[in-house]
Amino acid sequence: MSRRLIVVTGGLSQPSSTRLLSDRIADAVIAAIGARGESVDVDVVELRDLAGDLATMMTTHVPTPPLADVRDRVSRADGLIAVTPVFTASYSGLFKMFFDALDTDSLRGMPTIVAATAGTARHSLVLDHAMRPLFGFLNAVVVPTGIFAATEDFGGGEGSGEEGLSGRIRRAADELAALMVADTVGVDGYVTTTATRPRTSGNTVAGVSAGPGGSAFEVLLRSHLQ
Fold this sequence. Notes:
Layout: E1 2-9, H1 17-34, E2 39-46, H2 51-60, H3 65-75, E3 79-87, E4 90-91, H4 93-100, E5 111-118, H5 126-137, E6 141-142, E7 147-150, H6 165-180, E8 204-205, E9 208-209, H7 216-225
Parallel strand pairs: 1-2, 1-3, 3-5, 5-6, 5-7
Antiparallel strand pairs: 3-4, 8-9
């Protein structure tokens, strides 16, 4: 089964360190999913190519055909990698415009890696102070490991081991792959539900949606007590 991975990269130059980091993360996810016996189709969206379309959307509230096509591709993806350069201690305006232009539920339940690039490591908190709140608001499922890369992290200065850039990329890729291929979650012997991306709105935990029987948490709790 082939999974669909969409990569949204907000680099403004060509080539850019943002696109370089995006490609490295995507390659790691491909390898992690391949190790689980599945394949993945990667779709890369360069936001610099949509700058005019996004400005039109912001002023007319009507997406242009190219933007409408990208919005549809995002909503159909099984996983997301979102990478932005840092501007004024936050994500770029173009990056924010794109996610403002999506439908409200486009990212609901979508496994997501957040990543950012900047000239100095002093901006590394952008992942927790700006990006996680944004994607939390959009109801995406952001993996625990975020990826920040300063200029010094590329090339020979990226460090070694699990805390170096390559190690963080591998760890985040494994976390995303586990969600995208719906590994079994929960405690062995109690919960056998698989974690698949919910395609409907509403409160969902580990693939169990709230319904007449109570909230998703209550459903899972009852399965532990039976």
